[in-house]
Each structure stands twice: as structure tokens, then as C-alpha cells.
Amino acid sequence: MQGGRPVVEVVRLGLVSYQEALLLQQVYVNRHRSGPAHTLLLCQHLPVYTTGIRHKPYPATVLDHLRELGADVYRANRGGLITFHGPGQLVCYPVLNLSSFKKSVRWYVCELEKTIISVCSRFGINASTSPHTGVWVGDNKICAIGIHCGRYITSHGLALNCNTDMSWFSHIVPCGIEGKGVTSLSAELRRDVTVEETVPHLLDAFGEQLNCQLTDGHRPEPDGNSRGPSAEDFSGCP
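Request: output the structure for the sequence above.
Response:
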């Protein structure tokens, strides 16, 4: 810490596959074994539909259809149902030790929600939470949130739609929530809002909301011995 505030290293991964992001998260989770190593991973994903734990697997014909669209399909071994990640979506994976912040998963999720609400406010968009997960603009979800926390070390995080091709969502019921829609910063503002434009606002809001100091970091190589978190680790989307 410096001046009593946790220091969080910001690592910009660029456009990466979902699988690579899982492995990189595990690299940073492992670093916490030798002391605080707070990190905020920022990325965009190649088109991918991720499915979580449910009573019955999705029919092979459904998954094959999604692949035919040009997206990968990945069983994420998390709670929740199906969602989409792709270019134009700002994906943030905070890997934090909550012992340096507050030992409360509920508090942490609320802080992520407040962070995104603040980002939206900076763009003049009135966003809010709802009984469902994530951050919403009316009945349309603009940001999905789903975390894992083991021994107070967090992974996974949030996915904010910036200028995502929203047609990808038309092939699924995002996160299994019937009767609701999805939106993006670009759709709400009726102009192109890129991930690059959004990142500074996200970093400012994250630093303010979690009362931490952000520093620039460098991307590591995935540890060949690392694996993605197991099935019981996840809840919600992404």
C-alpha cells in the first residue's frame, strides 16, 4: 500500500481468447500466494459464447449453430447460463485480495456495480442495478457481472458493452433472463463509443470506488501449470 490505499496493477491484454484470459487470471491468482498482488486485467475477447452450470447440457445442435455463426463455444464451469463476449466489449477481470479492501463478497459486487453506474453517468447515461445481476439501463442490460472469490482472492469480473455487435445476443437468452434486452454505450448515445474511449473512465471510476491507486503493468506469459478455476468457483455471468 501507499498512503493507506491498495496499489492495483493495470494490465492491458488487448484482444485475447476466452481460454487465454482464464489462464492469465490464474497466473495472477497464484501470485497472491506470496503476498498482495492486486491486478486489474483489461481485455476484449474474440467472439465466444460461454455456458455455465445448468441441470441439462445445451443441445449439441444449439451449440453447433452458435459455432456456425463464427464464435467459439466454451463451457466456463461457472454458475449462470449462457452469455456472449466479443470485440467492442470491455472485459475487466480484477484479481484482488479483499483482505486489503473489505472481506465481503457482497460489498465487492456492489462496488463493481457502482463503478459501472459511475462510468455510465460520465457518459450521461442513467444506469442502475435490478433484482437481476449486472447493471441495467431500463430493462436492458449494459454490463454483465459475475465473480469468483476463493479465500478472498477474486477473479472473473464484468463485461461492459461499448460498441459490441449486438446481433450476437439475438441467438441466445443472455444469462437466461427471459423478457429482458441488452444494450451498449453506443446504442444509448447513438454514436460510436469504443473500448479505448471507455477505458479511462472505467479506471477513474474503479480507483475512486474501491479507493485504490492504479499503476501500469505488463502482460505475463501464462503458466503452463495453471488451469482455469473449477466448476464450483463461479456464480453469475460472465
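Residues 229-235 have pLDDT under 50 and may be disordered.
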